[in-house]
Specification:
With about 290 residues, the chain is of the alpha+beta class. It folds into three domains: about 1-70, LysM domain (Membrane-bound Lytic Murein Transglycosylase D, Chain A, Roll), CATH 3.10.350; about 75-180, no CATH class; about 185-290, RlpA-like domain (Barwin-like endoglucanases, Beta Barrel). The chain contains eleven helices and ten strands. The chain has helices spanning about 1-25, 35-40, 45-55, 85-90, 95-105, 130-140, 145-150, 165-170, 175-180, 180-185, 275-285; strands at about 25-30, 65-70, 75-80, 115-120, 200-210, 235, 245-250, 255-260, 270-275, 285-290. The strands form three sheets. A six-stranded mixed barrel has the order 5-9-6-8-7-10. Strands 1-2 form a two-stranded antiparallel ribbon. The longest helix is centred in the first third of the chain and has 23 residues, at about 1-25. It is globular.
Length: about 290
């Protein structure tokens, strides 16, 4: 019996040591030449998340500084008010739209005033299909609440049933009320109507990058010199979703070339080239429409 107790104690000590090693891998010690942007790309997180998790007021970091890749905050919640969108809420709380989806069991970005959303310290939740379908029928009656829902959320017909609940969201939501924060963040770029018809349309998660990160050459995957052509509109894509070299139109950015790739750009994600590093940081994370023109 004593031998069994000793063996169990040794196993517990080994388990604790393994847990300590796993925990240590959730941070990064800054080395000379590191930038917050490069660290975020290598670890598939955003600059805003790193700044939020590490209580940083700017993207200035120093050698030997410890950068955490997760939040140690307790669970936090937020009550939705009229005019809110998921992208604005995510940006305000230093997280991503994908995490809000996971923590709150959402299957679309349709939200209503009074909803309670977990915005920090959450765990993944399954989204019950019947609850998503029923929500518009119960809460969409008051005109002022319907107007608060983001217009793009009403697009899938199967989620917006009954049909009459879709019409007020498309007609009554003023553009300035639906996404004020996103319009300010996108100020450095303009979005003109596409010059030709789209062959494919999709919704993606967009971030931004510059040509002057530490160690960057400024030359894209397709050979475009961004430092010599700072006004060139280029996006980094997953070639399995948007073919390299395609001409595209991006909501809030305009027509561009799918001329680059990135280690963190997988699936329905894109990275917009913006010349100014501060403007790229201010862009944050946004849900946008993309039209593949050719």
């Amino acid at each position: 019996m004593k031998k069994q107790i000793v063996a169990l104690t040794a196993m517990a000590a080994l388990t604790a040591g393994a847990a300590g090693q796993a925990s240590a891998s959730s941070s990064h010690t800054v080395e000379k030449g590191d930038t917050l942007w490069a660290i975020s790309k290598e670890n598939n997180v955003t600059v805003q998340e790193l700044m939020h998790w590490n209580s940083l007021s700017s993207d200035l970091i120093y050698p030997r500084q410890e950068i955490k890749f997760h939040s140690e905050e307790v669970k936090e919640s937020y009550t939705v008010v009229s005019g809110d969108t998921l992208s604005e809420i995510a940006k305000a709380h230093g997280t991503s739209v994908d995490k809000l989806y996971s923590w709150n069991g959402l299957s679309s970005d349709l939200i209503f005033p009074g909803d309670q959303l977990t915005v920090a310290g959450g765990t993944a939740q399954a989204a019950p299909a019947e609850e998503v379908a029923a929500a518009p029928a119960e809460e969409a009656a008051p005109a002022e609440e319907v107007a608060a829902a983001p217009t793009e959320a009403a697009a899938p017909a199967e989620e917006a049933a009954p049909a009459e609940s879709v019409a007020p969201a498309e007609e009554a939501a003023p553009a300035e009320e639906a996404a004020p924060a996103e319009e300010v963040a996108a100020a450095p770029v303009e979005s003109a109507a596409p010059s030709s018809e789209a062959v494919q349309e999709l919704t993606v998660t967009a971030t931004a990058y510059t040509a002057y990160c530490n160690g960057c050459s400024g030359i894209t995957r397709t050979g475009i010199d961004l430092r010599s052509n700072p006004n060139q509109k280029v996006i980094a894509v997953d070639p399995n979703v948007i073919p390299l070299g395609s001409k595209v139109w991006v909501e809030g950015y305009g027509e561009a070339i799918a001329g680059d790739t990135g280690g963190a750009i997988k699936g329905n994600k894109i990275d917009l080239f913006i010349p100014s590093q501060q403007d790229a940081l201010n862009y944050g994370v946004q849900e946008v429409q993309v039209k593949i023109l050719e």
